[in-house]
Amino acid sequence: MPDQRRLPFPEDSVSYKYYLKEKAVEKDEEEDEVLLNSSVIKNANGSSYVEYNGAKVMVACIGPKDLAKREDFSLSGLLKIELSYCAFASRASRRAPSKTTEEEKEQAQIIEEALKSVILLKRYPKSQIDMRVQVICEGLAETTTMAAIVTACGLAAADAGLDMYGVVIGAATMGTFASIMPELNQVTGILSVAENIEDEMKAVNKRAQALYPAIMQHLKEKDV
């Protein structure tokens, strides 16, 4: 047992902080935490893994591939989003294993509509592109999770070499999510429960613009 009568440090000791030449820079509350990785699934045409403010998402891009049914023929390519959550993805409670929930269907539809304005589907007639999204850990808010999904889908599409109008980025506050193409300054999707949507969109767009250099640097290093 340690000697309780002895101090673990000399009585005349001084904190090391007094000798620091510069004060530590506190993290900006508006700064997003993001981790990007691509080509993480070998059997997929393109794939990605993204962490965004606590949310963790993995996406596999399959295609373009021939349509499975002749009645689905289209001069423009079809985009299909398959979204599911891991049983342990929820921060509140464990999800029961079941079929796709209504929440997942609604989120998949929002993501699909957002990406249709990004991918040049007319370049892929008679073809289908599948985006299989796996949410490993959801964010503190639904908006954060949606932003991570959009960014991951955009990275997976770029990794697959799909023709796109530009890089798409998902960014969010606690009340608003938006899918944004910073190069064209266009919003392709939005989900908000905020009262002052104008101020919220300014904050979300600012975050998307701040993430853009990191994503472009990642794509450059991957030579995508």
UniProtKB/TrEMBL annotation:
This protein's record includes keyword Cytoplasm: yes
Gene3D superfamilies referenced in this protein's UniProt entry, alphabetically: GHMP Kinase, N-terminal domain
GO MF annotation: an example: RNA binding
Segments forming domain Exoribonuclease phosphorolytic: 36-162
One GO-annotated biological process of the protein: U4 snRNA 3'-end processing
Subcellular location: Cytoplasm; Nucleus
UniProt keyword Cytoplasm, yes or no: yes
Keyword terms of this UniProt record: Cytoplasm, Exosome, Nucleus, RNA-binding, rRNA processing
Predominant location: cytoplasm
GO cellular component: cytoplasmic exosome (RNase complex); nuclear exosome (RNase complex); nucleolus
UniProt cross-references to PANTHER family, sorted A to Z: EXOSOME COMPLEX COMPONENT (PTHR11953), EXOSOME COMPLEX COMPONENT MTR3 (PTHR11953:SF2)
Family to which this protein belongs: Belongs to the RNase PH family.
Name of the featured protein: Exoribonuclease phosphorolytic domain-containing protein
Source organism per UniProt: Oikopleura dioica
